[in-house]
Design a protein that fits this description.
- With 490 residues, the protein is of the alpha/beta class.
- The chain has 2 domains: 10-45 and 99-145 and 343-489, 3-Layer(bba) Sandwich (FAD/NAD(P)-binding domain); 160-217 and 224-338, FAD/NAD(P)-binding domain.
- Helix content is 30%, strand content 18%.
- It is built from 13 helices and 20 strands.
- The strands form 5 sheets. Strands 1, 2, 3, 4, 5, 6, 17 and 18 form an 8-stranded mixed beta sheet that branches. Strands 7-16-8-9-12 form a 5-stranded parallel beta sheet, with no helix packed on it. A 3-stranded antiparallel beta sheet has the order 13-14-15, with no helix packed on it.
- A hairpin with a 4-residue loop joins strand 4 (109-115) and strand 5.
- The longest helix has 21 residues, at 232-252.
Length: 490
């Protein structure tokens, strides 16, 4: 006698209510699919931008490109918006598309496993709840979990510690001795913001970054009115900015004469801002631009040149009750700011994910994350990842990639419904074939020789970035094809 199959609670479960999760929900709704639910661990939408409240937090891609192509903001005040503006845009977009009734807040996913008998994903939450869904879209992004280095003595420090990803509101740094650990994307924003108000500021840098000038400015009233009343002008500007970033790929993704030209721009900025030869030496990279994330700032170097700021060109070795030890020397501080980024996507999912045959994702990815076009993972049916492996941008907006992935996932789900298909599972051979070709393409890029930044696995493979132009990636996922999958019909 046949066992009655369990029905799903929802057709599509979307994990995460940041840019990607909300965008996915909008795409489903536009396709006429209403049977979806967004599961969000926090009490509000926004993801990284909800949580990025540290002083100086801002976007490093122009707003017109760092927003949905199908829903441009009309209230931007400047070229590169502060975090509050980005979050307000996300809030407005959520309300514009009436997504709040479709979001289950304060619900943290603790595990998800595929029920092969019923062809359903079984999602467990921290509340002890169970949610069954036919399809799962992971929209947790690469910046879901902040990272504090495992340094001896972390629990010994008696002062205040804070990570840029979880800034303590009301934290008063005026007149304090502060240490900022890190010199990456968040550090180059927070240091200039707090340097004028603190008594002393020690910045601990392991590796200097290539930093280009930031073409930022406040929009005039005329420009604001133009974007508000003639929306097509925003689309034109977005297209122009995207074109410029694609040109930048010839300097960042590939090692070319354009790379040398851009390095020259960076070095001239150092020379103009810093007069001390020793400090210049410390902030000048000794590797080619593109090997690590290129950063943008106009005030990082002037901040380091301040009298109350010291750049310690060495990693932190240990913490004491009073401060930090680097290169054998103790630096006494009142507050430590960890600007040490997030756990890399190559380090796996933030919760256990189990596919067919008991395949555990984090075990499967122990030697580095792998997927098919960053969207589907072999052995994990009806699962689509947004911002998955090797879909990070080195030169443009991540939303260019994620919007293409949303369309791909929407096509797949829609096709399954139309053809009465229970599940689609990425074929191992197709995934292997794709990643072999991906590796060959990576060898021709700036990152082909490996490295030690968060881009890379322990053995030096780049599992984070896409080795090519964004246009190339978008075209590669423009059409869902059942031939790439093992298909199970109803």
């Amino acid at each position: 006698m046949a066992t009655e199959q369990i029905k799903p609670d929802v057709l599509v479960a979307i994990v995460g209510a940041g840019f990607s999760g909300l965008g996915m929900a909008i795409k489903l709704r536009e396709a006429g699919m209403e049977d979806f639910l967004i599961v969000e661990a926090a009490d509000e939408v926004g993801g990284t931008w909800r949580d990025s409240k540290y002083p100086g937090a801002a976007v490093d891609v122009p707003n017109h490109l760092y927003s949905f192509s199908f829903s441009q903001g009309t209230d931007w005040t400047r070229m590169f918006a502060k975090s509050e503006e980005i979050q307000n845009y996300i809030l407005d977009t959520t309300d514009k598309y009436d997504l709040r009734p479709k979001i289950k807040f304060n619900t943290k996913v603790t595990a998800a496993s595929f029920d092969e008998q019923n062809d359903l994903w079984v999602i467990k939450t921290a509340k002890g709840e169970t949610l069954r869904a036919r399809f799962v879209v992971s929209a947790i992004g690469p910046f879901a979990e902040s990272q504090v280095p495992n340094i001896p003595g972390v629990k010994d420090f008696k002062g205040t510690m804070v990570h840029t990803a979880s800034w303590k509101q009301g934290l008063d740094l005026r007149g304090k001795r502060v240490a900022v650990v890190g010199s990456g994307a968040s550090a180059i924003q927070v240091v200039p913001a707090i340097a004028p108000i603190v008594k002393e500021l020690k910045v601990f840098q392991r590796t200097p970054s290539w930093i280009v000038p930031k073409a930022d400015y406040e929009y005039s009233d005329f420009e604001k009115a133009l974007y508000r009343y003639l929306p097509f002008t925003q689309k034109i500007r977005r297209a122009a900015i995207f074109g410029i970033t694609e040109i930048l790929a010839t300097a960042i993704v590939y090692d070319t004469p354009m790379t040398t030209l851009l390095e020259g721009v960076c070095k001239r900025q150092i020379e103009r801002a810093i007069k001390d030869p020793e400090l210049r030496r410390k902030v000048t990279p000794d590797y080619r631009l593109g090997r690590t994330r290129m950063l943008i700032s106009n005030d990082w170097y002037p901040a380091l040149a301040r009298e109350n700021v010291e750049l310690v060109n060495h990693g932190v070795e240990a913490l004491t009750e009073k401060g930090l030890i680097a290169n054998g020397k103790e630096y006494e501080v009142d507050v430590i700011v960890w600007a040490t980024g997030y756990k890399s996507p190559s380090q796996g999912f933030p919760f256990p994910l189990t596919g067919v045959g008991g395949r555990d994702l984090n075990t499967y990815w122990k030697d580095g994350a792998k997927a098919y076009k960053g969207v589907s993972i072999a052995g994990f049916p009806n699962l689509f990842t947004l911002m998955g492996p090797n879909t990070g941008p080195g030169h443009t907006s991540v939303l260019v990639y994620t919007e293409a992935q949303m369309d791909y996932a929407r096509q797949a789900i829609q096709a399954c419904l139309e053809k009465n298909i229970k599940s689609v599972t990425m074929r191992d051979d197709k995934q292997a074939e794709f990643n072999e070709e991906l590796g060959k393409k990576m060898e021709r890029t700036t990152w082909g020789a490996g490295g030690s930044s968060w881009y890379y696995t322990k053995d030096g493979r780049n599992t984070t970035l896409y080795p090519g132009f964004a246009t190339e990636y978008v075209l590669s996922v423009r059409k869902f094809d059942f031939d790439d999958y093992s298909v199970k019909s109803a």
